[in-house]
Each structure stands twice: as structure tokens, then as C-alpha cells.
Amino acid sequence: MPVAHPAGCAAVLAELLPYRRPLGSGHGDMAVDGNMDIDTPDAFPAQLRQLAAPVAAGAPLVFTLPGFPCKSPHPAKVLGHLPDEGERLALRFLDALCARIEAVHPPGARVVICSDGHVFSDLIHVPDRDIDAYADALRALIHDEGLTRLDVFDLRQVYGQRLSHDAKRALVHDRYAPDVEDLRSLTRSDEPTRRLYQGITRFLAEDSASFPGTRSAWQRDCRRRAYGVMQRSRAWGELIGEHHPGAFRLSIHPQPRGSAKFGIRLLDAPDVWMTPWHSCVLEHRDGRRELLHRADAERLGRLVFRKGRPSHFVAG
Questions:
Q1: Secondary structure in 3-state letters for the chain
Q2: Among 48, 161, 183, 206, which has the minimal tally of Cβ within 10 Å of its Cβ?
């Protein structure tokens, strides 16, 4: 027998559904007959269950969102190593989403951004000092924009400042990461896992601006690192769950119906895998903002600076 959920759960979920990032190419999932299913709250029982207890208790909702790690190291994708207009718009979107949820759930909601750059930095070849600078600038941006419904959580909150970044990564990996052979098996048998592996491998390949070896060695290296990123991602998710029990888990990756995670789209982009930290913003003449790789955006617009730093492009 289906479990009854408070009516407020469906109202909260209805605020999230317009921004869901599905595994397919549209705003729903592909049905067996090839047509696109339309999202409705009752199609997401796992999320309704996550909402049931805090809604019934009249408690504030907590959403955890792993992401906002650091900027891509590839200069053809981004404007630099610090947050820019893409992050600013994404953060404002998340804060405004919490405000809309508050209208249907008066106790309110907040998003804990679980910045995971230090979890992966050795695998994605980004210096830890750049990740520290990115996370510090992210916190400053949240403060300066007055986004009171957002928090940032990273490895510094977990292990403090005394341990090295390598030591922190080792602790996370050793305690929480799944066996790599289990992930390889899932990649062969589970479609969402296979797509995640392919997406991560593609990102790593694109971000490898130079590689000293042969093309085949470069491809093997990207595949090896992709499994490492997946292991650390699972580990980070387990750690987040321990530190934020009962939270509603958001994801910046596309997710199918039935997943325990809810994929969310932060900004418009031509690719469902694109994020503000792998791209930059192009503002069109009609005011619409879109995420594009820098090489594409600068062909279509002029560069705009904010507070002395490159911010985004405006279409000419």
C-alpha cells in the first residue's frame, strides 16, 4: 500500500520540478513508447519520503548540493579560477528557489552547498590553493549578495586546517569510497552509472589541455581518473549524509526518476552536463543568459568586467 505523505510535500516538490535535470534530453524522462513523460510530484516517491518528516514536523527543510568545486583548468572553457557571473546567477537562483519554497512551507528552506573541490583536486589537476581561493570567494559572494538561505560546507569544516589536503582526501577515500571493481561492474549494468562515467570521462578529457604521452595513454588516464572521481563522489556523498542527516539530496548531474538524488538545473545551457564552473555566461540581447564555453561565448559577445575581474559576455 502506498505511504501517505502530507500535502505540503507535493507542494514543495512542485517548486523543484520545473528545474529538474533529467537523464534524458528534455524536462522529463523517456517513456517505454518513446514519448516524453511529464513530471508530477507523485512520480518521485523517494523525494516525497525525504520531505515527509520535516514537513509533518513543521521544520525548516535542508537541501544538500554537492558541487561548486572550482573552475575548470581549461582556458577555453572559463574566464579564470574564481567565481564569476555564472556562480553569482546560480547562487541567486538557489536562494530564490528557497524563497519560493518558503511560500508553500512557511518554516523555510536552505541549501548547503557542499563544495567538493578538495575531494577531487589531485584527480582533476587543479591546485589546492586555487580551490581554497574559489571557495573563499564563493562565501564572499554569498555574503555580498545577501543570500541568507545558502551555506557552504567543505573539507575544512570536516577536518579543520591542521591536516594536509592529501591527508584529508585519504581519510575520505579510505573510510567511504566503494571498491573500484564494484563501480566498473555497475558501469556495465546500470545505465545512470554508465552515463555518469561517460560524462566525467568527457569532462576530464576536455580539461586535459596537455598530456605528455600518446593518445591511447591519455584516454586510459582519463578513464582511470573518472573511476577515481566516481569513488570520491560516492565517498563525499556518504560523508555529507553523516553530517547532514535527513537532508534532501540535490545533484548537479542528470538523474532518472527513482534515484535517491534529485538532479537540478542551475542555469540554461545547451548541454545537460554543463555547469557554471565548466563554462561562462553569455547574456543575449533579449536578456536571456546562457552557459557556454568561453571559446564559444567570446565569438558571440564582448567581455564584461565586475569589480575589476572578468565576469561574463554580452551579445553584440
A1: CCCCCCHHHHHHHHHHHHHECECCCCCCCECCCCCECCCCHHHCHHHHHHHHHHHHHCCCEEEEEEECCCCCCCCCCCCCCCCCHHHHHHHHHHHHHHHHHHHHCCCCEEEEEEECHHHHHHHHCCCHHHHHHHHHHHHHHHHHCCCCCEEEECHHHHHCCCCCHHHHHHHHHHHHCCCHHHHHHHHHHCHHHHHHHHHHHHHHHHHCCCCCCCHHHHHHHHHHHHHHHHHHHHHHHHHHHHHCCCCEEEECCCECCCCCCEEECCCCCCCCCCCHHHCEEEECCCCCEEEECHHHHHHHEEEEEECCEEEEEEEC
A2: 161
Q: What is the CA radius of gyration of the chain?
A: 20
pLDDT along the chain (316 residues), means of 10: 66 95 58 53 93 95 97 94 97 97 97 96 94 96 98 94 94 96 95 90 81 81 94 96 96 88 90 89 95 96 95 95
Region of 148 on the Ramachandran plot (φ > 0 left; ψ -120 to 50 alpha; else beta) = alpha
Cα gap 234→241, rounded to integer Å: 11
Residue 74 C-alpha cell reads as 581549461
